[in-house]
RNA sequence: GCGCUCGUAGCUCAGUUGGAUAGAGCAACUGCCUUCUAAGCAGUAGGUCGCACGUUCGAGUCGUGCCGGGCGCACCA
């Protein structure tokens, strides 16, 4: 464990019951290891570099009936020159119970630790009472990060592929904030470039004067874009016309600019509506159009300074020495590219927001090489800031890749409407007495939960094959399953509030195994936040070490935890009666219901999902 | 061709960085609503972890080779 990690643990987890239990176990084990008990081993001596064990050797047993934490003794066996089983036995036999940890038992090469049911449960409830809504959050040293996500293009439709970006972005922002970071979320919208020129060219030539229906703007423009792509593919000579349109736009031609502004606004209005609908808030909207012309200027300066060179009529930077091939900065027809604008954007971000430590770009992994080139190019021109490409894999359909160019997309609007139809029907079946507004609100919360969870439940690095029918599920490993567990906890609390109960002032009575199990799961929330947000704030931010880096940094870990927590809440709901027992038990159990409710609510929040009180 | 990546139950995916008997969800089958919301719960069935070697106390996990997908490799974004 590095110093940095220890620091972080001390800043955050030191104040939780689980962390305290780990500290106690390590302390107890170190006492045994540093005594003379083990010196009689075949080696006879302790390795000189052995100092003490730390919390990272503690794991979860495969079966929770074995214990609450365990420690495999294989690496210790090497140090002491004894068999793992022998070490485990010595550690277990000499373990003295602590306030939170009742016992240790050796099973083969493992030591399994059992928490004190009452003390640990009380400690978790105490954490919750102290932290409240901030349970699971860290207050560690502030680091300032700019997170760019939400980069749809105007003049195209927003489709389900964009949702993965938006939802990962939203969750990453919330995770980093929970980890105590100062996060600036920004959006970067592609409102210029070849696709826009192509669309406007075809609009003017074949659809001049036509207007989209309200709410159909993206679909309307997207269809024209698809048509344009088809026509240009059929007749290559049309490329010149499209290029001329882009040149006209980039040089500020009045008529084309007016058409661009009007159609652009259609798209922007639609996008803003979608961002708002799914809960994505940005501190700043960057547009490609605002960095295009300064970007071109920058590239020409690089050419003059000899940092860039001409090649086949285009301006490039040769990155062969970094094994990154050739990086194209400006097209041979003088028009801009992604790179032209991104070089400028990077500088603009750091000049607008002061004291930024890191800039994170959440973009799909097909652009991994591009970003490596971009970061290398920036470094070469003296821009030495921490830049990270957080790559996720693409959303495809069973038939193959979704592409606006080909026109085979499932739009966000279609997906949402289909989900809403189903969710409103399901809600109505359960609550025929609800009015329309209430039905609609709950259905929307469920739909949002289902959409977001579906996009986050899987490792971001793996592709999602989108199936509309499967995505319509509200059962099993889904958002609504978790939301439902939350609603059940709320329902108990609501009923309790109506009951006129005599509350016992202190928590009294014995915590049962079921009660403990629920709180044991709740206690993992801070640890989950720590692990899931650890990636971008520690170690090397090197895209070449992607697996190691992103392995930890992944909302899917939170999704998995959240689902487990919901299962434990349902276990509790099934096994432990709350309202029908005596005052003492009821008070204690209501505290646990409250703990489950809060943990579920916080965990869902990290995924960008609202927790309904009823559904 | 070069580079990256993936291959685990019928389907969609986990597998805590090499550790205990490979786990969930869906679909299938059997049950459970006079008992805090059945968007739930209990149970059954389902596996040669693509194939073959290798590394070691131990491999789904690491290495090499093969087979089979996906993505990228200068004027698209």
Features:
22 helices, single chain, 3 domains, alpha/beta, Gyrase A, domain 2, three-stranded antiparallel sheet, five-stranded parallel sheet, Rossmann fold, 615 residues, aminoacyl-trna synthetase, ATP binding, protein biosynthesis, Isoleucyl-tRNA Synthetase, Domain 1
Structure characterization notes:
This protein is of the alpha/beta class and 615 residues long. The chain has three domains: 113 residues, Arginyl tRNA synthetase N-terminal domain (Gyrase A, domain 2), CATH 3.30.1360.70; 189 residues, HUPs (Rossmann fold, 3-Layer(aba) Sandwich); 190 residues, Isoleucyl-tRNA Synthetase, Domain 1, CATH 1.10.730. The radius of gyration is 29 Å and the shape is globular. It binds one RNA strand of 77 nucleotides through strand 9, helix 13, helix 14, helix 17 and helix 20.
The chain-level structural class is: alpha/beta
Number of domains: 3
Instruction: Work out the helicity level.
Output: 40-55%
Give me the CATH architecture of the largest domain, please.
Answer: Orthogonal Bundle
Outline type: globular
Flag low-confidence runs. 1-12, 40-49, 536-551
Name the average pLDDT: 89
**Cα distance, first to last residue?**
44 Å
Which range does the strand content fall in? 5-15%
Largest sheet: 5 strands, parallel
GO molecular function: arginine-tRNA ligase activity; ATP binding
Organism: Candidatus Uhrbacteria bacterium RIFOXYC2_FULL_47_19
InterPro entries: Arg-tRNA-ligase (IPR001278), Arg-tRNA-synth_N (IPR005148), Arg-tRNA-synth_N_sf (IPR036695), ArgRS_core (IPR035684), DALR_anticod-bd (IPR008909), Rossmann-like_a/b/a_fold (IPR014729), tRNAsynth_Ia_anticodon-bd (IPR009080)
Catalytic activity: tRNA(Arg) + L-arginine + ATP = L-arginyl-tRNA(Arg) + AMP + diphosphate
